[in-house]
Specification:
seven-stranded parallel sheet, binds 2-amino-2-deoxy-6-O-phosphono-alpha-D-glucopyranose, three-stranded antiparallel sheet, alpha/beta, 8 helices
Length: about 260
């Protein structure tokens, strides 16, 4: 894992967006994996800026989102489909039919999950996957205890995740208790992963993911097995990292070499 400790959230977003933008420039028909939550919002704003100001062309890309709340239709204001439309897709030139978010209302969710996996495979796999991290270390909605080989499926959320996500809903009772989520195994197949992390509440989960043992109790730790993962975090999120001086030193060396 390449860990970059940034001065602030703006730098986290700019550097992470740079990896996605470089991929789109190099491969106009790239397959991009997107995440929801507050963490990637700055990255999406930067991609929108690059599109509007520098003409970054998204017309040939295909996108797959990590997850969707079970029971919420794409039109629901709190659905992850609505989130992506509002925060990215409506502001760039990707044709909507090239964007994919798991269905939260499929009649046969098992079949829909298999079809989602098949579609990712048919498109040649994900080139760059954007990720956040939950305060319990989850990626997508792979809660503690999820198999590190898991595939897209229905997952029940922990009380912690329900609490964390309640801020987006009017009442806590409105937060769905399960979701359709890509599995850890699905995510590990992306060629490159870019994780954005911000804020002190993520510091313990991030330290466990990067420096702790690989364990299903913190599914982000599975990224230690991934050959090309970039983590961009701010100072607050980096607070519990033991090797922070080393990460900073690597960054300086890399900049000096380029
Ligand atoms: C949800 C999403 C995750 C996201 C996490 C953290 O659980 N399923 O993909 O990483 O929230 O969200 P935030 O960035 O808002 O802290």
């Amino acid at each position: 894992m390449e860990v970059t400790i940034c001065t602030d959230y703006a730098e986290v977003s700019r550097l992470a967006a740079g990896i996605v933008a470089d991929m789109v420039r190099a491969m106009p028909d790239a397959v991009l994996g997107f995440a929801t939550g507050s963490s990637p919002l700055g990255l999406y704003k930067e991609l929108i800026r690059l599109h509007k100001e520098e003409g970054l062309d998204f017309s040939g890309i295909t996108t797959f989102n990590l997850d969707e709340y079970y029971g919420l239709d794409g039109d629901h204001p709190q659905s992850y489909r609505s989130f992506m439309n509002e925060n990215l897709f409506n502001h760039i030139n990707v044709p909507m039919e090239q964007t994919h978010v798991p269905s939260g209302t499929a009649e046969d969710w098992l079949e829909a999950c298999e079809a989602y996996e098949d579609l990712i495979e048919d498109m040649g796999g994900i080139d760059v996957q954007v990720l956040g991290i939950g305060s319990d270390g989850h990626i997508a909605f792979n809660e503690p205890g999820s198999s590190l080989g898991s595939r897209t499926r229905r997952v029940y959320l922990t009380q912690q995740t329900i609490e964390d996500n309640a801020r987006f809903f009017e009442r806590r009772e409105d937060v769905p208790t399960s979701a359709i989520s890509m599995g850890v195994g699905t995510i590990l197949e992306a060629a490159t992963c870019v994780m954005v992390v911000s804020g002190a509440n993520k510091a313990p989960a991030l330290a466990a993911a990067i420096e702790g043992p690989v364990t299903a109790m913190n599914t982000a730790s599975a990224l230690q097995w991934h050959p090309d993962t970039w983590v961009f975090c701010d100072e607050a999120a980096a607070a519990d990292l033991e090797m922070r001086d080393y990460y900073n030193w690597i960054r300086k060396q890399r900049e000096a070499d380029s």
